[in-house]
């Protein structure tokens, strides 16, 4: 129901930074819980960070202190600021939305590659 359009992925050196953006096309963005997930080659998709409509956040232990999730409800956009990137952060990153009715939507994914 909700279309998610991601941008900001790319190739970066270890220790560098990237900022991912996800624009949600649909109503109710301010209420939806938004999240970033990633899937590395040969591994399961995992939660990276999540932010509720009220602004509460949680992070995977592996990214705490390095990544920050935020949202701009006026722009229907969620961000993932990634600092101090490591090669193990290399993955396809997916934006996710969960609405009041339990419906979930996924973005197409954006590749993040961290070289060492």
Structure, described:
By secondary structure, the chain is mainly β. The protein has strands at residues 3-7, 10-13, 18-25, 33-39, 46-51, 57-59, 67-72, 77-82, 91-98, 104-106, 110-115. The strands form 2 sheets. Strands 2, 4, 5, 6, 9, 10 and 11 form a 7-stranded mixed beta sheet that branches. A 4-stranded antiparallel beta sheet has the order 1-3-8-7, with no helix packed on it. Strand 9 and strand 10 (104-106) form a beta hairpin.
Task: State the shape.
Answer: globular
Give the helix/strand class.
Answer: mainly beta
Order of helices and strands: EEEEEEEEEEE
Mean pLDDT: 95
Instruction: Note the total helix count.
Output: 0
Number of strands: 11
- Portion of residues in beta strands equals over 45%
Helix content: under 10%
Flag low-confidence runs.
Answer: none
| Largest sheet properties | 7 strands, mixed
End-to-end C-alpha gap: 39 Å
Rg estimate, integer Å: 13 Å
How do the strands and helices of this protein lay out in sequence?
Layout: E1 3-7, E2 10-13, E3 18-25, E4 33-39, E5 46-51, E6 57-59, E7 67-72, E8 77-82, E9 91-98, E10 104-106, E11 110-115
Parallel strand pairs: 2-11
Antiparallel strand pairs: 1-3, 3-8, 4-5, 4-9, 5-6, 7-8, 9-10, 9-11
């Amino acid at each position: 129901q909700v279309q998610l359009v991601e941008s900001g992925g790319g190739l970066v050196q270890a220790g560098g930074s990237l900022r991912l953006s996800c624009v949600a096309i649909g109503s109710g963005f301010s209420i939806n819980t938004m999240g970033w997930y990633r899937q590395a080659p040969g591994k399961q998709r995992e939660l990276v960070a999540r932010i509720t409509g009220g602004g509460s956040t949680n992070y995977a232990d592996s990214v705490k202190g390095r990544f920050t999730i935020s949202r701009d409800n006026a722009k229907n956009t969620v961000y993932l600021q990634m600092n101090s990137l490591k090669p193990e952060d290399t993955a396809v990153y997916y934006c996710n939305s969960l609405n009041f009715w339990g419906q979930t939507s996924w973005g197409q994914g954006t590749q993040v590659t961290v070289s060492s």
